[in-house]
Fold:
Amino acid sequence: MMISRINLVYCFVFCLMLISTGMSRRAFADFPTPPTPPTPPTAPTQPGGPGGPGEVKDSQDAESEEASSKNLSGKIPGGELSGGELPGVRLRMQRDDGKRGLLMTTFADRSPWGRFPELLARTRLRTQGKPTFYKIADESFVLYVPESYEPTEAMGLVVWMGESPAAVPPAAWCEVLDKHGLIWVGANNTGKTQPRHRRLSLALDAAFNAQKKYNIDPNRLYLAGLSTGGEAASILAAHYPDVFRGSLLMQGSLYHRDLHLIDQPQKTLPAGFRRPMMTRYFQVKMHSRHVLIAGEQAANFSDLKTIYQNGWIEDRYRSTTFLVMPGIASEQPNAHWFEQAIKAVEPSKATTTQAAWAR
Structure:
C-alpha cells in the first residue's frame, strides 16, 4: 500500500514537469523575433577613377594603406629594399649622422637588460641601501667611431668600464681600434666612486644604444675594464653572455667562488659575486672569450693569477688568455698590450682548446 502511494506521487511530479516544459517551449516559440536592421546603402562612386578624389575604398584597402603608412611591413619609406639589403642596415644608414672620430653623445633609451629589477634579479647583486635611479637622457657617453666605418659593414664594439669619471680612450688605443675595426663606447660618471649597480646598468645602456645606432657584429661585442672597472666588467661578462661575447679585464677581476691563493694556499680569495644560473654559466665557459691582463709588479698580481689558474683553468673555461706585463705595476696597459688583448679575444685568434699564458 505504501509503495503504490509513492508511485502515485512520482507519477504526479513527472506529469507536472512535462506540463511546465511544454509551456516554456510554447512561450519561447511565441516570443516575437526582432526585425533585421536594414543594410545601409553603398555610397556611389564619383568620377575620378581609381586613386582619384571620388574613389571609395573598402575597409581592407584602408587597413592596408594604414599599415603601409606606419611601415609595419618592414619596408623603409622612400623605396623598396634592394636584393641583399636588410631593413636594419637601411635604418642605421638613416640614423648615421656621418660623424666619425671621438664623439660625446647622449642616448634616449634604457636597455631592457639594464633596468634595475632585471639587473638585480639576474646578478643577485648585494646592494647597500636602495638603488640610485637615473634618467638616461641626463647621462653622457663617449664614442669613438673609426673613419672607415660604413653602415653596410658590421664592426666590433668595445664597451668601456673605467676608473675615472671620463670614458675617453687614449689616442694610441684609438689607432688600435681603427686597425681592428672596433667602435668604442663608454658612460661618463661611472668611475670607482659610483655604486656598482649604476656602473653595470649604464654599461648595458651603452651597449644597447650603440647597437641601435651602428651596425655591430654581435660576435665581436666585448667588455673592457680597468682595475675596479675590470671587476665590474667580470660581473657583467659572467651574467650576460647572451649580450657580451668576450671580456678584456685589465688589472682587476672578480670570481664567483672562493679560491685558494696560488702562492699562499692557506689563504683564501673570497668570492666577488654570485655564480650565474647554470645555462648562462655553461655559455660563459664554452662560448665566451676572456682575457686577463696583469702587471707583474701589481699589488693584486697574485689575486689575478689565482683567478686565472684556480678559477678559469680549474673550472675548464674553454677560451682564456693571461697576459703578464713584465716590470709593470698597476698602470693602464699601453697600446701594445691593448692590441695583444684585442687579438686574443677576437673569434679568429681566441684559443679554443687550451688556455694560453702570454708574456
Notes: Residues 323 and 340 are 8 Å apart (CA to CA). Confidence is low (pLDDT under 50) at residues 20-35, 40-87, 350-359. The longest strand covers residues 216-226.
